[in-house]
């Protein structure tokens, strides 16, 4: 970027159903890596494979990799339902399929009945979950999350079914997320640790999943 090398000597493999977390300070290249995988940045050298397919020359929409940004980039003029349906409409899915997917995904992120809500009526954590549902609606092979916990409510652990959520997300996806949160409030730190411990417990029950 601007003739400056951001990522050097980077080599990693992420298996199907695997969770990869990138931790580091601002400017170290976490988001750059995610954007490169998604095809939003062109790399000057090296190769990126998704499955067995080399994707360096593929457009972002052809890679089956979706990134959820920290600023979410929801469409404020559309309802929750229309935000989630957006990618499916582009793919010309049937009306029945879209309706079923919207209901299923809102159940997954524990926002049932929010279909007609306007984005401006949602809390930060709710918008985060709508953005995740919208990303999953496109049925990606790789889900990339940039600062995934930044907007979550501290009270969320008490009402969010983390084991079910993590199991469903990782059932068919490869998941990578980036975070620079090293100093967290105690209550949020407990949530962060609980999330990861529940995730590890869930994955330990499924032998095909490997954590680095």
Summary keywords:
two-stranded antiparallel ribbon; alpha/beta; four-stranded parallel sheet; 212 residues; disordered C terminus; 36% helix; 6 helices
Give a summary of the structure in a few sentences.
The chain is of the alpha/beta class and 212 residues long.
Number of helices: 6
Run of helices and strands: EHEEEHHHEHEH
* Gross morphology: globular
Total number of strands: 6
Q: SS-based structural class? A: alpha/beta
Low-pLDDT stretches are 180-189, 206-212
How far is the first residue's CA from the last residue's CA? 29 Å
| Biggest sheet details | 4 strands, parallel
* Strand percentage: 5-15%
What is the strand arrangement across the widest sheet? 1-6-5-4
The residue fraction in helices comes out at 25-40%
The averaged pLDDT comes out at 76
Q: Report the C-alpha radius of gyration, rounded.
A: 17 Å
Description of the structure:
- It is a single chain.
- The chain is an alpha/beta fold.
- The chain contains six helices and six strands, in the order E-H-E-E-E-H-H-H-E-H-E-H.
- The protein has helices spanning 30-38, 80-90, 95-108, 124-137, 162-170, 186-204, and strands at 19-23, 49-50, 53-54, 65-68, 142-146, 174-179.
- The protein has a four-stranded parallel β-sheet, with helices on both faces.
- Helix 2 packs parallel to helix 4, helix 3 packs across helix 4 (124-137) and helix 5 crosses helix 6.
- The protein starts with 18 loop residues before the first strand and ends in an 8-residue tail after the last helix.
- Mean pLDDT is 76; it is low at 180-189 and 206-212.
